[in-house]
Design goal:
With about 130 residues, this protein is mainly α. The protein has 5 helices and no strands.
């Protein structure tokens, strides 16, 4: 195991204590009641535990919202634009027009590959704000 493996935290980030569900609740039902609960849970496309919780507490469980940092949103927009460019290049390469534009296409591909490699390198290196 390398030093990097030891330092890196793995798994899901822990939930705040007010949201975390760590108290098990167990109740017994017979086979018929279990089938009825499973049937109604399936009708509402819920797992059995979620269905019982929703019906007994009359609330839906809070959903975790995915928060994308601003830097990643900027990269996402850039990658989206670059992927659109690459798709257009691939479409041209797959048509008969490719012979006349081969030199321009190759230069566009090389330029996009350089940009993608630079962005990937920048994303891997941690940035520190020095003010």
């Amino acid at each position: 195991m390398t030093k990097l493996d030891k330092e890196r935290k793995r798994g899901r980030k822990p939930l705040p204590p007010d949201i975390r569900r760590d108290i098990p609740l167990v109740f017994r039902v017979n086979a018929y009641e279990h089938e009825i609960l499973k049937h109604y849970a399936e009708l509402e496309c819920l797992e059995l535990g979620h269905y019982v919780r929703e019906k007994t507490l009359k609330t839906k469980p809070p959903k975790r919202q995915l928060v994308i940092p601003e830097v990643n949103q900027e990269y996402l927009k850039t990658f989206s634009a670059l992927s659109n460019n690459l798709n257009q290049i691939a479409r041209i390469l797959n048509t008969d027009k490719a012979n006349a534009d081969n030199i321009k296409i190759k230069s566009d591909i090389n330029r996009l590959v350089q940009i993608l490699l630079a962005m990937a390198t920048e994303m891997k290196t941690p940035t520190t704000d020095k003010e």
